[in-house]
Design a protein that fits this description.
about 150 residues; four-stranded antiparallel β-sheet; about 20% strand
């Protein structure tokens, strides 16, 4: 009888061990969201905030980027592309962005982002309406005269 009970306990132990081993699930690989953001786009986004504050206060875009000083509590972000080291180009009247609403008022001086330029597109959708600004990546052809 002891032998039968020992075999039963052994069989039960093996069954439990097999169940535990067989039921083990692999832990899925957790992917973290990418924290890599283009530093130029991020910087232009910060300047967008300054442009929006200026527009809300003065009901228009500044004559030049130096006019943005004092709009925010802190200093202005550097007004140069962190990749090329070249100063951003500000154009109060803006360039047309074919196929997109708004006009490009601030943009990279050179196509240093895989042949493209980061730009700030600004749009006013009507009288007494707020300014909408967004950072977009544009092909070099938009900035080359006579190419569109």
């Amino acid at each position: 009888m002891n032998r039968v009970r020992n075999l039963a306990v052994l069989a039960l132990g093996l069954a439990l061990a097999a169940a535990v081993c067989g039921c083990r699930t692999a832990t899925p690989e957790v992917r973290k969201p990418s924290t890599e953001i283009d530093p130029c786009a991020e910087r232009l986004h910060e300047v967008c905030g300054c442009l929006l504050l200026y527009y809300a206060t003065h009901k228009g875009l500044p004559e030049n980027l130096a006019d943005l000083q004092g709009v925010t509590a802190g200093p202005l972000p550097p007004l140069v592309c962190p990749v090329s080291g070249k100063a951003y180009i500000y154009n109060r009247d803006g360039l047309e962005a074919p196929g997109r609403p708004g006009r490009l008022v601030l943009y990279d001086a050179a196509p240093t982002h895989d042949g493209m330029r980061w730009a700030v597109s600004a749009e006013v959708s009507g009288t007494n309406r707020p300014l909408t600004a967004r950072v977009i990546l544009m092909p070099e052809s938009v900035f080359t005269p006579g190419s569109h």
